[in-house]
Sequence to fold (195 residues):
Amino acid sequence: MKKFFKLGCFGFIGLIVLFIIISAVSSGGDSDTTSNEPKEEVTKEKKKDAPKKEKIYGIGDVVKVGDLEYTIKEKKEADQVGPSVLPEKASGKFVVLEVSLKNKGNEAVTADASFFKLKRGEKVYEADSAASISANQGEDGQIENSFFLQEVNPDSEAAGKVVFDVAPEVAEASDLKVQVQTGVFGTETESITLK
Fold:
């Protein structure tokens, strides 16, 4: 019983010492307020420097995203796209973007219309693959640069049309942007305004 009492006392004293150490560490020495003032000033300075202004890109600008360079050459609205024999008709209104994509990397990239997303505020609109293929089809039926799983080798460029089928008021909106990305998963993105 004496052994248990001695061990119990030492254990209890050990717990009290451990509690005091944890309390001292977690308080971080709040009693010395002058040491905190320079730290606060440094953090305020970092916060002032931290917000970086997002570069604003527009039509005609070359926008680098990863190993890809994007240029939106023109934005048009249309009710239909494609050859006159079998045109693709919009359920709302088509936003047709004349774009180019250059691969500056060391390996081929499989480009797709999904690399482009139309944005208005928080809303995101996906490209219409069938309309994009039709928009890149000539009257003779030949399709060039359809942006449908198109292989783009290093130092090569693909140019063509990417089409979005949206409501007429969206197509005519003045605050539309296009988000371009590094690939299908879009780990890196940039925005281009369509004014």
